[in-house]
Amino acid sequence: MPALTVEGYGTFDVAENKRLVLAIEEDAGVDIMHACGGNARCTTCRVEFVDGEPAKRTAAEKACLESKNLTGVRLSCQLVCDQDMSVRGVSRLEDTGRPDPGSRPADTITPPAEWV
């Protein structure tokens, strides 16, 4: 079982291959944003890695981050917990004034993962 550390919240055991955005929200109890529903369109689920950053990324994540000229961050909706990892800088609902974080992301990566 991978260990997920969310800076300021602690370390949590998460199910193998659980989407990172869901692990942050459900296991760590952080009100992370996912305004587009976890579909790699909005970047509100972005995180910075402290340790354990996965080397692979989806084509959708790559395209989304490039279109918004974002570097040094990853989209938690496009990653799975398949190893120990430590993240920080999550975009939280509390900080936005929005009524909700967005619809719950599906259990599997959407759009279907094309790893690059």
TrEMBL record:
<dbReference type="InterPro" id="IPR001041">
    <property type="entry name" value="2Fe-2S_ferredoxin-type"/>
</dbReference>
<feature type="domain" description="2Fe-2S ferredoxin-type">
    <location>
        <begin position="2"/>
        <end position="93"/>
    </location>
</feature>
<protein>
    <recommendedName>
        <fullName>2Fe-2S ferredoxin-type domain-containing protein</fullName>
    </recommendedName>
</protein>
<dbReference type="Pfam" id="PF00111">
    <property type="entry name" value="Fer2"/>
</dbReference>
<dbReference type="InterPro" id="IPR012675">
    <property type="entry name" value="Beta-grasp_dom_sf"/>
</dbReference>
<dbReference type="GO" id="GO:0051536">
    <property type="term" value="F:iron-sulfur cluster binding"/>
</dbReference>
<dbReference type="InterPro" id="IPR036010">
    <property type="entry name" value="2Fe-2S_ferredoxin-like_sf"/>
</dbReference>
<feature type="region of interest" description="Disordered">
    <location>
        <begin position="91"/>
        <end position="116"/>
    </location>
</feature>
